[in-house]
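Exercise 3.2. Students should predict the tertiary structure of the chain below and write it as structure tokens, then compare their answer with the key that follows.

Predict this chain's 3D structure.
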Amino acid sequence: MHPETDPDVLEMLAFSRGDEEAFVRLYRTWRDRVVNFARRMLGDAASGEEAAQEVFLRLYEARKRYEPRSRFSTFLYRIATNHCLKMRERHDQRFTDRDGEMDLRPSAATGAEDHAAQGELRQALLRALSALPDRQGAALLLCHYDGLSYEETAEVLGVSEGAVKSLVHRARSALMERLGPWMDQAKGLSHAV
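Answer key:
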């Protein structure tokens, strides 16, 4: 999709010309996606909410200098990614045990505890995502959770498409290694549901 045919680009252009309602429409359209992206990047819901507020504030402030060089989603995710990476630098969002490594071992769960185990698995995944090196985590989230193409992700991160593919591959490998103890439990949960 070319920027000039992207309806969200048109909304942002209307906003940049003074249409405050266009900003409200963009916010309503994109808020949940930005919150979810930030939550995955930062590892918890509260940080995701905080980051999303700041991202939309930055979007609001960017209205006068906005130029539609790419899809609106690319522009917005660039703001969100940069902000989340800065938050990760300022605040160590990584969950660690006594040795400085994440403890991703599953607790034993059977029968009625399956629902709780699914919640633990979800939390383990969030912790594993937040523990990835910054660019790996961002590339994986943008491509696989938020549906951006490799080309769009490369534009957001300021790297080549080949670098994005490499980052995504390394992120997947790291997640599989960290989540290994959960894999058997996850297979059992999926059969039980």
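Discussion points: Residues 3-90 form a domain with the Rna Polymerase Sigma Factor; Chain: A fold (CATH 1.10.1740.10). The radius of gyration is 19 Å.
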